[in-house]
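Please check the following for our workbook:

***
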Amino acid sequence: MSSLMASEHGTHELDSMAALRQSVRNRIVITGDVEENELLYQMHQASRDIKDLFASSFGPCGMSKIIISPTDDIYMTSDGKTIIEEIDVLHPVVTSLKKLAISMDKACGDGTKTAVILAASLIGNAVRLAGQGLHPATIIKGYQLALNKAYEILEYESMQVVSEEDFNSVIENASLSKGVEPRQARKITELVTRTISNLKSTDDGSRIELNDYVKIIKKVGGPEIECIPGIILDETPVRDDMPQHIKDARILILNYNVRFESKIINSQRNIRIEGTDNSMLLMQEQARSLKGLAKKIIDSGADLVLCEGSVDESVEDSLAKHGVLLFKKLKMKDLEMISKATGASIVSIKDDILPDDLGFADEVNVRKKCDEHFLFLSVSGQPISTILIWEPFGYGLEKLEEAVDDALNNAAFLMKGPFVVSGGGCIEFVLSQMLRRYASTIEGKEQLAVIEYANALEEIPRILARNAGMNATDAMVQMLHYYGKGIDCRIDRTGEVVPNIPPVYDPSSIKKLSVIAATESVNSLLRIDKILLKK
């Protein structure tokens, strides 16, 4: 009987494994080995589908996508990394473009869609060249020549940011690219500029990890965006009778619980508590111990106590009577940021609390808005800031968060390398025109690949024009007209080709990273000549 059950169990496991393999293969969209023409066809189809998906959501006039999760959660987004992460396909081409998007987002937090659209266009153009008889090695060499020249041109076209207006233009353009209203973009620019100015003290030449210094909280309500130097927590104080406003506050941060532990008097757990006298003894010891814990906190001189764990009610009562504000059950990540912002040490209630363990805040405020409590911890002269976003609708909230995130990343890159290039599709159009001229100087078939590289770059302003409701061909003709006169122009969000005045800029470093990452990803794919499906 047991052997029969084991056999049935083994058969069930084999069926489950077979179903899992089939599910994965359905997501890979490959049923057997792929090579030659079929491989080219699949590369073309996959890249075209990804490009179409990204192109319609590109730029300030781009459309959003509705994503339905496996748990039937529905949300809208136009963020490139979010869109491609939700694509449940494991085809090698799609996977490569996914990695490109994720790496771009991780490296600079922006330029994701530019890199993916360029890469998809390069793949499609390479497939067309391969169909005309060009060897992949020739295409790769041509693409590499084009990349090298494009980088040189980007270096030449880069301009140093010398005014506050130019700096703000980059940040505002990054916000507008997410489709937010100009009024909101100006507010975001103001807050991000203030936030980034606080980070100048951390400038040691390395890339700034914004998550370590900037906290973003989003809430349904408002609409409103506010920012403080310091920390905002969406937490409720332990009691209503505690102070709501404190000036020049001293901060105490505690980890673990502030409660009575029986092991203090019975560490070996070998004493049985029986009878009324022993119970009273235990209660008296408990009260004495808790009174001592409360006295230790009060004697420390702290005005605000932030605890990771729970706090006994008698301790809460004592702190309230002495005008001490208390928050409990807080996240350690928040406590670590508060520690960094205020200079407070994270200590245990069992340890001695020294004066140097306390931190300092210029002002502490407890405010209630939309039935939620918030703790505002304002600390000047330090790099940590918090941005609080209010928006009546969930979709608008996500869009505003994406706009703030892009603006912050662009500002951080500008602080490290204050060089910009013309935005609105201008620099890509200039690159495409210069690369076509460069191609005429190349002998051999590599010049065909350079021309296709130029065509791929021109897809960026073409897509911006289409999304703005323009005829792409007419837009390119107008841009060529301005280019012939030596005038920088752009695709404006109003649906017109206009001179780049007032200027719209993008960070030069992000453009360089987008071009390099897209080209390297495509060249890696072009080196594949066969896909093997393991049986």
The first helix runs from residue 2 to 28.
